[in-house]
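Human: I would love a firmer grasp of how sequence relates to backbone shape in proteins. Take your time, and here it is.
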Amino acid sequence: MATKCLVIISPGTENREKAIIGFHYALNVKRNNLLEDVKVILFGPSEKALASGDMEFLKLTRKLMELSIIPIACSGVAKAEDITSQLENQGLMIDDVGPVISNYIKEGYEVITF
């Protein structure tokens, strides 16, 4: 049974409700110690929403960081969309998420996508 999860949040403003559920799931896991560990990756449209200053995404990202969850954003998307500096200014880690996801799976993290 998995004791760690990797939450991947892809939707942006086009499917806001789904993204918000992903943020809240990660927050609740951490706040309530439901699992040993939780990591968050923002991918694609969710990165663009955050970089564009979407207030709800910003608020939820700050709440994650207050709980010591530093979201990772995809470097490929960030570079292609020219939003790397905006994401870094929000405190996100920028990385090539392909190897990151693979390494978390090897470490026993269960992947949950929103």
